[in-house]
């Protein structure tokens, strides 16, 4: 789960990371109020989970509450790379001496933690990594050893951060790491980490991603989840607990069990010349109810012309899947759309027999995954490869 | 000799008295797996799975009394990391963790300890492993495969079954099939398993099933080029996955340009690995590689 | 540094380990006051750093403040295995259901931490280890992994502790481990750990040894150091920082540099038929002042007839040692006792030359360690081997 | 080839600008040791020890720029554990820590990490090691020994010098002399060093100097019986030490009956190791063992 900047800063502040004074606002009037309360020059920043908002006009400096209100009015409702701006963060503006970069993340490849720092902050760090890799200091932090003074020292001396900022920036890094551990984050990133004219360093931006598997330890973070930022179908899937759903742009609905098999199903649909309308992995142990809910969800997208159900039973029993499909069709009533069904694995013969007996006009049985994909594509209107 | 697991392996099941634990242990036993003990704290002295398996309070007890040397973990996510450590310290040389949803931080702390102790950890969030005709540890359906010359390894669950099934319908069985799991941090990596297949006389061809995200496949590709003499065939899922969107388990996050299915395919092919465009073609490539 | 029971309990209580209510007292009157304040039945316990005080009569139960005062009067001033009782701990007495054992310690051999628990508490654990090793559950706790639920589970199930006490005893163990880490202890031991009639478990005794090297992190524990419990010479050595001193029973004083060499010197003195009066390792980098102070300290024991100084210079410079010896002799004035000196290593020739030039009547130069020991023994009155 | 240290070893000194660091680095350089760098955070870019050694802010810097592969630690006790970890993670394969007074808890946390990384740690609270005629890392006086066929290992400091000196006055030098340190938790144990001496062609006889406390000598005795072909001679200090009293460093605590000098002597002799009653006899036994 990715946090918005204002949420990330709230969380980092709890662990002692210094952040600018400010508050989130959902309306121009609220932004004005925040600006008035802070007094002096403020920055109004679009809250979107995507980079490049500065270039897109999503960050504006305002000298007065009036200007802050105007800035918020201009920013709220903007679309930045497909993300609609629904909130702005209004913060006190300070005199920045220099911009640095700092982050901790889970390094999947090395199966450890990775800390990074750079004197080249305030710019796209992936670009720095590509053009000037030596400007980024990296240290692997063994999860059992934890962040130690020598890690911080290596990040400070290796990054080119000015020695006069080592103490403050080092302390910030220690707190940032505490936040990383304490929130079960997969990433905490501060870019830019700025040194201010008055002395001291501040996290001027914050990107925090929380491990979804650890949410049971963090009800406070779960409460920050912004379902409003999701699409309607995604939200429904999340709220009703219908597996893992991602909206796509095509007309062939896809339901599979297991992420890998479902991804592979998308691929064979594309290979057959169709375009998948969605990714929906109903997970292990799916049953009649969850199957019915999944079908309901996919057909909620009017662009869907055909549904492809691709199940390889392991824990999941194919007979229950078959019953779920029939149940869903009964509940949906007068559906014209066809469902291509391919069942294999645990209780596949029973499942196929159930469907055969039902002889439902909307159900098309397929013997293999490839055949199923081809049929679904044809039923959805044939090859559309651009 | 199969890799990691054979009929002599003495398996203890952690969480044996839970619903999943009982169900899959029964299936594993019926497959022929030598399940010698179960562990559920507080139920020591009882017998589980229709009275067939003695239950202990601790893995140490199961190791001491029943000589267990491999553990299969069906414990709920918030306790599973602890269970892996327990099995490791009790002296199991193989630990297979099926449990899904273990926090990555917990696994990050488990991994270096397990590694330092020289334990082969498979998973978590994996279907387990099967040496067809010998033993089955986990949830892979045993009936869709049989013994044969193919070593199979995969980050995925049901997709693995699909590939096994594609092979089996063509009369092709496996020496061992290992689902390494799709979580951000898993125990055995592709390379760890490839190394074992290379050394295994029963394995003639290796089939590797990858997916988008991470760089496991790229690292494996280089390992194959530099260190393997046996032919390796691959399949990668996720060509149609949109960049930056999450697809199910955490192993499937695209991070920039690296980690795409296309990038993985290119690296694999550059390292001499034939890559099938779908599971069917992957199975057919494996047959071809057998010659 | 070993803590007294009452100190150990104070420390454990800080980490949440349940201990009986009580207070230390240095006089019968104070013991009476504590008993009166607690009300009801109390236990009066001798505070000595040695086992077996119960059998020696150092623990008495008292039903009234009068009885408590009488008990304290009987116990204070007792000698238990050579330790004089200077304080008693007066604690509320409870109804004990069962006695267990629990400890965590540094396992030097395995280079890790060791946790132990047993249902056979309240008795000498070394005896249990010798006669019924299966009654003691042991777990190694990797210092980087820390104490985890499975360790506690193994200690509970392996020890024979009754299942109804697992929860409370397990929680106590977790806190005991926190105390072990938090105080840099090399040992925390609770014997007996008792289950009470009213429910709950309590640490009825506590043995805590703190790593002297970690004292810089624990000024609060350093303040607990009881110099009064040491011998006079030991206390002087500690207070004046004169290396590592241990009082022995013989007549040949020994000063060496380095623990191993000094121990070896004791051995060769014994081999030559003498009895060492002390162990004094003046450590690395000794100089003229520390040498003079060391000689002063050893001659403070009237039983010492001869002093053997055995120095192998590494960091230590032998010329400075020679100057220290001459300086000490000058300051001590009319000393009749001889000092046998053996110098080798860094600046040994300079050191020997200094002594030769001084030609002090009390100084006897020796060429080798064995020769030095033989001379010292002869000068102290010859072979005394019993 | 000596064990652990020879003239090719590229040494970085951590804490080089401190008093002890400067003093002993100078002595080590004068002995011929290849000291390529020093580390003191904040003094990177300067030169230490009479301008002879470039100083870096981090060990990683010294490794990168000067190819350091071994670190000598003279850092104060409260920072020394961190320094050992830093050298380990920077890629040094040998770390020698002279520092005395490091909390045991810190070392308990350092040891498993260092071990997992395969680094040879000598110390802490040790005099270091010397391969006479080649290189000297630490505080052992180089002038009391010379090259020869004896492998020497010891838990003690000055007692080691005594034994070296006893040998050298008899014309006997060492291949390498390793002071493993007397703290409760040290990196390399007797067994680790014995294993290297057994494999070292320059070493013909091994002399081991132990003392009361712990069970290092007993474990070493069993290792010698089972795994060593070269003769081993021992000396144990502390026969006169009273039970239960502490004698200097923490390595010298008697724990009950086990750990006494007498018990150690008996186990060693039962395992075929000749034990001298004093340093002189130990040296003479070594000459005899050379044949």
What secondary-structure arrangement, pairings included, does this model have?
The complex is a heterotetramer, with two copies of chain A (386 residues) and two copies of chain B (291 residues).
Chain A lengths: L4 H10 L7 E4 L2 H11 L3 E5 L12 E4 L2 H11 L3 E2 L2 E2 L3 E5 L3 E12 L4 E7 L6 H7 L4 E6 L7 H11 L6 H17 L2 E12 L4 E3 L3 E4 L8 H4 L9 H9 L3 E4 L4 E5 L2 H13 L6 E4 L6 H12 L6 E8 L4 H15 L5 E8 L2 H11 L4 E3 L3 H11 L7
Parallel strand pairs in A: 14-16, 16-17, 17-18
Antiparallel strand pairs in A: 1-6, 2-3, 2-6, 4-5, 7-8, 7-10, 8-9, 10-11, 10-12, 13-15
Chain B lengths: L10 E4 L4 H13 L3 E5 L7 E2 L4 E4 L2 H8 L3 E4 L3 H14 L3 E4 L6 H13 L3 E3 L5 E4 L3 E4 L8 E8 L3 H11 L5 E6 L10 H10 L5 E7 L4 H12 L4 E6 L23 H10 L3 E3 L2 H12 L1
Parallel strand pairs in B: 1-2, 1-5, 2-4, 5-6, 6-7, 10-11, 10-12, 12-13, 13-14
Antiparallel strand pairs in B: 3-4, 8-9, 8-11
Helix pairs in contact in B: 3-4, 5-9, 6-7, 7-8
């Amino acid at each position: 789960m990715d946090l918005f900047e204002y949420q990330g800063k709230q969380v980092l502040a709890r662990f002692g990371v210094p952040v600018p004074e400010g508050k989130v606002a959902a309306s121009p009037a609220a932004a004005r109020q925040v600006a008035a309360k802070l007094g002096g020059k403020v920055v109004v920043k679009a809250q979107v989970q995507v980079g490049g908002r500065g270039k897109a006009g999503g960050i504006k400096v305002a000298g007065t509450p009036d200007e802050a209100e105007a800035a918020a009015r201009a920013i709220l409702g903007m679309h930045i790379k497909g993300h609609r701006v629904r909130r702005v963060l209004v913060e006190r503006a300070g005199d920045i001496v220099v911009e640095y970069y700092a982050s901790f993340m889970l390094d999947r490849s090395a199966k450890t933690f990775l800390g990074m720092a750079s004197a080249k902050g305030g710019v796209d760090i992936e670009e720095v990594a590509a053009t000037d890799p030596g400007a980024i200091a990296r240290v692997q932090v063994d999860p059992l050893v934890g962040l130690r003074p020598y890690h911080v020292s290596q990040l400070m001396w290796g990054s080119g951060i000015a020695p006069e900022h080592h103490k403050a920036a080092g302390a910030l890094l220690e707190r940032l790491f505490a936040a990383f551990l304490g929130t079960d984050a997969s990433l905490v990133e501060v870019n830019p980490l700025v040194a201010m004219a008055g002395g001291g360093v501040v996290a001027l931006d914050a990107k925090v991603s929380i491990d979804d598997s650890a949410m049971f330890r963090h009800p406070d973070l779960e409460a920050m989840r912004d379902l409003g930022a999701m699409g309607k179908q995604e939200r429904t899937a999340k709220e009703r607990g219908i597996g893992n759903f991602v909206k796509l742009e095509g007309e062939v609905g896809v339901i599979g069990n297991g992420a890998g098999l479902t991804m592979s199903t998308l691929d064979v649909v594309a290979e057959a010349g169709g375009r998948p309308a969605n990714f929906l992995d109903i997970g292990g142990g799916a049953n009649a109810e969850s199957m019915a809910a999944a079908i309901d969800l996919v057909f909620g997208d009017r662009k869907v012309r055909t549904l492809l159900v691709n199940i390889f039973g392991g824990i999941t029993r194919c007979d229950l899947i078959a019953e779920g499909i029939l149940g869903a069709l009964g509940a949906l009533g007068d559906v014209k759309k066809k469902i291509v069904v391919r069942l294999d694995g645990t209780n596949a013969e029973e499942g196929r027999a159930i469907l055969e007996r039902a002889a439902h006009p909307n159900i098309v049985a397929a013997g293999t995954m490839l055949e199923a994909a081809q049929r679904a594509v044809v039923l959805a209107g044939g090859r559309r490869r651009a | 000799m199969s890799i990691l697991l054979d009929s002599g392996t003495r398996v203890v099941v952690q969480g044996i008295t839970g619903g999943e634990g009982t169900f899959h242990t029964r299936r594993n036993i019926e497959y022929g797996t030598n399940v010698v003990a179960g562990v559920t704290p507080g139920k020591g002295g009882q017998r589980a799975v229709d009275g067939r398996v003695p239950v202990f309070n601790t893995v140490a007890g199961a190791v001491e009394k029943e000589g267990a040397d491999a553990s299969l973990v069906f414990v709920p996510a918030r306790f599973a990391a602890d269970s892996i450590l327990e099995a490791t310290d009790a002296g199991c040389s193989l630990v297979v963790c099926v449990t899904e949803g273990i926090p990555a931080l917990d696994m990050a702390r488990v991994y270096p300890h397990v590694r330092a102790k020289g334990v082969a950890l498979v998973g978590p969030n994996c279907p387990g492993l099967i040496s067809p005709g010998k033993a089955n540890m986990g949830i892979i359906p045993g009936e869709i495969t049989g013994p044969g010359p193919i070593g199979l390894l995969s980050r995925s669950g049901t997709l693995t079954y699909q590939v096994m099934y594609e092979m089996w319908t063509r009369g092709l069985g496996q020496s061992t099939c290992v689902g390494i799991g799709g979580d951000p941090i898993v125990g055995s990596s592709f390379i760890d398993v490839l190394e074992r297949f290379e050394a295994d006389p029963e394995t003639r061809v290796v089939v590797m099933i990858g997916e988008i995200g991470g760089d496991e496949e790229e690292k494996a590709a280089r390992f194959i080029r530099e260190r393997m003499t046996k032919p390796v065939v691959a399949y990668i899922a996720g060509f149609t996955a949109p960049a930056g969107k999450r697809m199910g388990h955490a192993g499937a996050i695209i991070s920039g340009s690296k980690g795409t299915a296309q990038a993985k395919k290119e690296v694999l092919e550059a390292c001499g690995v034939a890559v099938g465009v779908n599971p069917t073609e992957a199975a057919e490539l494996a047959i071809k590689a057998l010659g």
